[in-house]
Specification:
With about 700 residues, this protein is of the alpha+beta class. The protein is built from 27 helices and 19 strands. It has a five-stranded mixed sheet with strand order 1-3-2-4-5, sandwiched between helices. A four-stranded antiparallel sheet has the order 8-9-12-13. A hairpin with a 2-residue loop joins strand 18 and strand 19. Helix 19 packs across helix 20. The protein is globular and about 80 Å long. The N terminus is likely disordered.
C-alpha cells in the first residue's frame, strides 16, 4: 500500500460498507416531473439512467467531460457503480439526490458517472488507485483525479456528512498544495501501471504433476471443510476455482478435492444464496453459512454455476445438481432472456427500497398460501427456524436431504416431490405479484459468452434440446448484433444500440462459447468464427514483449494506464481464458504457434498460479491440460450425433471432441471417413490409436 503524506492523512475517513460488487426511458428534453436532468439522460445504461435526474451535473465518461476538466482546470470525480449495487443506491439517495451536496460537487468538480459493467477498463484503474490508498475496494467507488485523469484519492461508500467534509477538504488541498497533489498523483499512477505487470518468463515451460499438487495444497488451506467454499465471510461463489477442483480430482484422483467440491455445491444449493422458489443464485452470502445473500442476481454467476453443476453431474450423477441446473435455467429464461436471444445483466438486490424484500416470507403468508401443507413446507424450508432472518421475515433454505426429510415425515420421495413442486408454484405465483427488483436490461457480450457456455454444458449433460436452441439463438444474436464482419466485437447492446468497443473478456468468453458450440454440434462455422475472433484479438490486444494480452484494444482512446487482467476472481481473467482458447484452437487447427503462445502465457504466471489458490483457478485448469493426458477424439460418420451424446454422459475434461458426417476442411478429421460406418478415433500429438465403433471401447483407450 502506498504511504501518503500529511496532506491526505486527514482524508482517511474509511468508507463504511460497499457492494464488495425501475429504469426510466431515455428522453431528449427535461421531463416535467423532474426538477433536474443531466447528460446521463442520453445514455442507455440503466445504472447511468438511474442518476439522470440527480441534481449533480453528471457526465458519462468521454471527451466532453475530460476536456471540460482541462479547460476549467477542475478536479474530476469519477463515481463508479452498477445497477444491482445496494450501497450505490444508498449513496445516491443520501448524497447525490441532496441539493446541498450537489452544489459542492457541481461548483468544484467535473463529475463523471461510470457503469463498471460497461466500462471495466475505467473501473480497473480507479479501483487499483483506491486499493493502493486504503488496501480495500468495492462499490460504489468514488475516486478524485487531477484534470488529466491521474487519481489523487478515493474510497467506497461515504455517509453524507463524511462525504461533504471530504469534498471540501479535497478542494482546499487542491487550492493550497497543488504541487504535492501532482507528486502524489504520479506515485499513484506509477503504482497502477505496475499492478499485474507481467514480464516474459524465459525459463523453459515445463509443467509437471507436482505443480498441480502444490496448487491444490495451497488451495486446500482456504477450504471451509464444514460449510464449503472458502473459509470465513462473506462467501462468494468462485466457480472457476471449483472447476479446478473437478479437474484436479479427475487427473489426480484426489478424494479431498471432490469432497470439498461436493460439500460446496450441496451447501450452496441448500442455502439462502440459492433462490429456493424461483431458481438462480445471488451474488454472494454475507455470512459464512450461505444463509443471508446479498440479494442481487448476476448473469455471470448463474452462467458459470450452470456450467459447474452440469459438469459435476456428468461426474457424479447427483440429481440435486440436475435440479439446480433446470431451475436456474428456468430463471434465466424467465427473467434474463430478451426476445432477440440476448441475456440481460442483473437483478437488483432491492425492491421498494428494501434489500431482499422481494424474496423473503412471513410465516402467516406461507400459512395462507399453502393451507394444509403449510406446516410441512415451513419445516422443509426452515421457516421460523434456521431460516429466520430479521423483522419477522424468513429466507427459505434447506438443511437436510429430501431422503432424510421424507423419512422423518413418513412420506415417500414421490409424495414429497409433488408437495414441494406445488408449494413452489404457489409461492412463485404469489411472488410475481410483488413489486419486482429493478432489471438491468443491458446486454454485455462477455457475460453472454459465459451464459452461452452454461447452456451448452447443460445440453451436453442432459440432452435437453431447448438448451441447445437457446445457446444457438444467443450465438446468432452475438454474431448479428455485436460482431462486425472483421470480427470486431462491441461490449454492450441496448435499444438496438452498441456504443462501446469490446474489451478482451468480450473476445475471450465469446471464443469460449463458440468453441463449446462446435464441440456440441460439430458445425464448423463456430470453430471458424472462434478462430476469426482469436486472430482479431491477437492483432489488437496482444503484447509481443510479454506474451500476454492487454485488456483494451490499441484502437481505443488511451487511459492513464493500459492494463493486463491476469488473476481470476468471481469471473475468470481474460488472459487465462485467452490462454485456454489458444490451446484449444491450436489443437483443432494444428496451429503450433497458438499452442506455443498458450504455454508461454501459462509459464509467465506459473508460480503465481501455484501459490494463488482459487485466484488462479482458470490458469490451473490450463496447467492440468498441459500436464495431463489430453486427447483429440474424432467421430466421423452418419451416427456421430448419437455417439457424441453417449460420450457426453461422462465427465471427460481432457477430451476435445470433433466430428461430423464429412471430413470437411478440419485437419483433425482428414482421412478418417469410412464409407457406411461411424468411427471413433482417439488421437494424441497427431498419432491415433486403432479406430473403434463403440463408446466403451473409446473410454478404454482413454482411461486405461
Amino acid at each position: 500500500m502506498i504511504k501518503f503524506k500529511l496532506l491526505l492523512a486527514s482524508l482517511l475517513l474509511l468508507s463504511l460498507v460497499s457492494c464488495g460488487q425501475s429504469t426510466k426511458n431515455k428522453k431528449d428534453v427535461m421531463d416535467k416531473e423532474h426538477k433536474y436532468t443531466n447528460e446521463l439522460i442520453k445514455e442507455t445504461s440503466p445504472y447511468l439512467l438511474q442518476h439522470a435526474h440527480n441534481p449533480v451535473n453528471w457526465y458519462p465518461w468521454g471527451e466532453e467531460a475530460l476536456n471540460k476538466a482541462k479547460e476549467q482546470n477542475k478536479l474530476i470525480l469519477i463515481s463508479v457503480g452498477y445497477a444491482a449495487c445496494h450501497w450505490c443506491h444508498v449513496m445516491e439517495h443520501e448524497s447525490f439526490e441532496n441539493e446541498q451536496v450537489a452544489n459542492i460537487m457541481n461548483d468544484n468538480f467535473i463529475c463523471i458517472k461510470v457503469d463498471r459493467e460497461e466500462r471495466p477498463d475505467i473501473d480497473q484503474i480507479y479501483m487499483n488507485a483506491v486499493q493502493l490508498i486504503s488496501g480495500r475496494g468495492g462499490w460504489p467507488l468514488n475516486c478524485f483525479a487531477l484534470p488529466d485523469g491521474r487519481p489523487i484519492y478515493g474510497g467506497t461508500y461515504f455517509p453524507t456528512e463524511n462525504w461533504m467534509q471530504l469534498l471540501n477538504r479535497i478542494v482546499d488541498i487542491y487550492e493550497d498544495n497543488r504541487k504535492e497533489l501532482e507528486k502524489q498523483a504520479q506515485e499513484l499512477t506509477d503504482g497502477i501501471r505496475a499492478t499485474e505487470l507481467v514480464e516474459l518468463n524465459t525459463e523453459k515451460s515445463d509443467f509437471l504433476s507436482m505443480d498441480l499438487d502444490r496448487t491444490f495444497t495451497n488451495f486446500e488451506k482456504y477450504i471451509d471443510r464444514e460449510e464449503g467454499g472458502n473459509k470465513g465471510a462473506p462467501k462468494f461463489p468462485m466457480p472457476v476455482g471449483y472447476e479446478f477442483l473437478l479437474h484436479y480430482y479427475y487427473f489426480m484422483q484426489e478424494e479431498k478435492a471432490l469432497d470439498a467440491l461436493e460439500l460446496t455445491l450441496i451447501k450452496m444449493a441448500y442455502g439462502g444464496i440459492y433462490d429456493q422458489v424461483g431458481g438462480g443464485f445471488a451474488r454472494y452470502s454475507t455470512d459464512a453459512i450461505w444463509k443471508v445473500p446479498h440479494f442481487e442476481k448476476m448473469l455471470y454467476d448463474n452462467g458459470q454455476l450452470v456450467s459447474l453443476y452440469a459438469s459435476a453431474y456428468q461426474l457424479t450423477k447427483n440429481p440435486i445438481y440436475k435440479k439446480v441446473v433446470e431451475e436456474t435455467l428456468g430463471f434465466v429464461e424467465r427473467e434474463f432472456t430478451s426476445k432477440e436471444g440476448g441475456f440481460y445483466s442483473s437483478l437488483d438486490a432491492d425492491s421498494e427500497g428494501v434489500e431482499g424484500k422481494f424474496y423473503v416470507w412471513k410465516e402467516d403468508e406461507i400459512k395462507a398460501l399453502l393451507g394444509k401443507d403449510a406446516d410441512l413446507m415451513m419445516d422443509y424450508y426452515n421457516v421460523s427456524g434456521a431460516g429466520f432472518w430479521e423483522h419477522g421475515v424468513n429466507i427459505l433454505l434447506k438443511n437436510e436431504t429430501d431422503e432424510s426429510f421424507a423419512k422423518r415425515n413418513k412420506l415417500n420421495l414421490k409424495e414429497l416431490a409433488e408437495k414441494v413442486n406445488t408449494a413452489k408454484e404457489l409461492l412463485l405465483k404469489e411472488r410475481e405479484e410483488r413489486i419486482r427488483p429493478g432489471l438491468d436490461d443491458k446486454i454485455l457480450t462477455s457475460w453472454n459468452g459465459l451464459m452461452l457456455v452454461g447452456y451448452v454444458k447443460a445440453y451436453n449433460a442432459f440432452v435437453d434440446k431447448s438448451y441447445l436452441k437457446a445457446a444457438l439463438k444467443n450465438a446468432n444474436f452475438i454474431c448479428s448484433k455485436l460482431m462486425d464482419e472483421d470480427y470486431r466485437l462491441s461490449r454492450n447492446y441496448k435499444n438496438s444500440k452498441s456504443s462501446i468497443n469490446g474489451f478482451l473478456d468480450d473476445y475471450a468468453f465469446t471464443i469460449q462459447g463458440f468453441i463449446s458450440l462446435y464441440q456440441a454440434t460439430f458445425d464448423s462455422q463456430w470453430l471458424k468464427k472462434a478462430e476469426g475472433l482469436l486472430e482479431y484479438a491477437t492483432k489488437h490486444f496482444y503484447d509481443e514483449k510479454s506474451g500476454m494480452y492487454y485488456y483494451t484494444s490499441e484502437i481505443d482512446a488511451a487511459l492513464i494506464a493500459r492494463k493486463m487482467e491476469v488473476s481470476d476472481n468471481v469471473i475468470p481473467s481474460s488472459n487465462s481464458e485467452m490462454a485456454k482458447n489458444l490451446f484449444l484452437i491450436g489443437r483443432y487447427t494444428y496451429n503450433e504457434k497458438y499452442i506455443k503462445m498458450s504455454k508461454t502465457m501459462a509459464n509467465n504466471v506459473k508460480e503465481s498460479a501455484i501459490n494463488g489458490a482459487s485466484y488462479y483457478g482458470n490458469w490451473a485448469v490450463l496447467m492440468s491440460w498441459l500436464i495431463g493426458e489430453t486427447y483429440d477424439v474424432s467421430i466421423v460418420g452418419k451416427d456421430y450425433e448419437n455417439l457424441r451424446k453417449k460420450i457426453n454422459e461422462h465427465y471427460l475434461p481432457n477430451v476435445f471432441l470433433s466430428g461430423g458426417t464429412e471430413e470437411g476442411d478440419n485437419p483433425l478429421l482428414e482421412g478418417k471417413l469410412v464409407a457406411g460406418k461411424t468411427i471413433i478415433y482417439v488421437c494424441q500429438d497427431k498419432a491415433c490409436q486403432l479406430p473403434v465403433s463403440r463408446v466403451d471401447e473409446m473410454l478404454n483407450q482413454i482411461l486405461r
